[in-house]
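[Meeting: bench + compute handoff]

Bench side (C.D.) handed over the final construct sequence. Compute side (W.E.) agreed to return the predicted structure before the next meeting so the bench team could plan truncations. Sequence as handed over:
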Amino acid sequence: MPELPEVETVANELKASVINKKIVYIEALWAKSFDNRFDADLKGQIITSIGRRGKYLILNLSKSFLVIHLRMTGQLLYFENESDANFDDYIRVVIKFNNGLLLFKDVRKFGRVYHIKDPDIFLSHVGPDAFDQNMTLSVFKSKLLSSNMSIKAFLLSQKYISGMGNIYTDETLFVSKINPSSKANSIKYKKAEQLFLNMKTILRASINNMGSTISDYRDPAGNKGNNQFYFNVYDREGQPCKVCNTEIKKIKFAGRGTHFCPKCQKA
């Protein structure tokens, strides 16, 4: 599933292409992919800005909002010339502009394009992310202390801190030398500070590398990300740790495949 860096990359790339574009129409080629929850007419609305909250992409329109969740296999592909677009069987939603075309492609059909009135209400269940100005070290530490969850489950929960998924949770815990099974409220202040800073560093590095492509993720131009070439533990099961040469392990933990180094991340 695309995580914060991938959604941030999509947002950044789309800003250069669709800001100030006027919507001619939106067509759902698979009905469930487009969830219209507001009766404002989309025709003629202009995209004024693009933002992100956690793993959600937010297109601010002149009268309403489009919120897009890519889920597992969602892609947003932009074409300045409609003749260049490839309308394969996996295109679920078409957004036609006065000039240009944005296609929502989704093989597994889990992604959604929501038309809503108020993103603050719609995304009220989504917590602040690592780059939110309100997510200070003291706030992060207080959230840790309030939770008896494992740190792996804590970071995956979009309630406490959003945008973190399996990839960046495993990578952040590795560079922080924290075992995934450690209780969130057992992490000492200094270690919590390292975790907080490492989380930002890991996410920022991936954004700079245009995100991680494991299988389906693409940017709006159809390009793969490059961050997968820099993983320390994720997707490296059976390979030697880059720090100590111990074999990287993969276990099922917190409901997810979890990669870690048994020596660097002792329980």
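W.E. noted at the follow-up: The chain has a mean pLDDT of 97. C.D. will use this when planning the next construct.
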